[in-house]
């Protein structure tokens, strides 16, 4: 079974998550290609995992366009979606909500429904203030910005691998 893992990233953290998902799916015996959405073509694949970095509560534009443009192909195959975005070590926000659930991008519900995705997962991301450009970089230099957007790599590789392993098991022939 051929699986396409397609992703949209701005600074590379989501690409790392996509690569780990691809590696993990490959270990379950699936044939996997990992591609940025700009280079991904769904023809010939049996299943899809599509992910995007989340900024300001939304998936990156190119990821949304990929799902919408390839809706007909994706909708007839198993699809999973993932997002990366929240940073920090806190798993609950001030209101007691799971940070990952509270950080789920606004457009995910519509995308999930559009392609009948079997699931969506939000993963913690990575923030390197030195890599940020423009206003994003300035925000992380301010005291309030440093508190809201702590720097570091917060990706939980075990969580990512367990999620991908579950997908791999689901895609195995009965």
UniProtKB/TrEMBL annotation:
UniProt xrefs under SUPFAM superfamilies: Flavoproteins
InterPro entries: Flavodoxin_dom, Flavoprotein-like_sf, Protoporphyrinogen_IX_DH
Flavodoxin domain sequence ranges: 4-102
Database matches in PANTHER family: PROTOPORPHYRINOGEN IX DEHYDROGENASE [MENAQUINONE] (PTHR38030), PROTOPORPHYRINOGEN IX DEHYDROGENASE [QUINONE] (PTHR38030:SF2)
Record-given protein name: Flavodoxin domain-containing protein
Annotated organism of origin: Nocardioides koreensis
Lineage: Bacteria, Bacillati, Actinomycetota, Actinomycetes, Propionibacteriales
């Amino acid at each position: 079974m051929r699986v396409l893992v397609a992703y949209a990233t701005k600074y590379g953290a989501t690409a790392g998550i996509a690569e780990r998902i691809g590696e993990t799916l490959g270990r379950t015996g699936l044939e996997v290609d990992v591609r940025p959405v700009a280079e991904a073509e769904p023809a010939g694949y049996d299943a899809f995992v599509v992910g995007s970095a989340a900024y300001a509560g939304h998936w990156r534009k190119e990821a949304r366009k990929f799902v919408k443009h390839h809706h007909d192909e994706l909708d007839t195959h198993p699809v999973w979606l993932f997002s990366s975005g929240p940073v920090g070590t806190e798993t609950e926000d001030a209101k007691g909500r799971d940070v990952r659930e509270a950080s789920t991008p606004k457009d995910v519900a519509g995308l999930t429904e559009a392609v009948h995705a079997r699931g969506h997962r939000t993963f913690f991301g990575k923030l390197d203030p030195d890599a940020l450009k423009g206003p994003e970089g300035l925000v992380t230099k301010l005291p309030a910005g440093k508190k809201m957007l702590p720097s570091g790599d917060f990706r939980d590789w075990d969580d990512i691998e367990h999620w991908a392993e579950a997908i791999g098991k689901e895609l195995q022939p009965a």
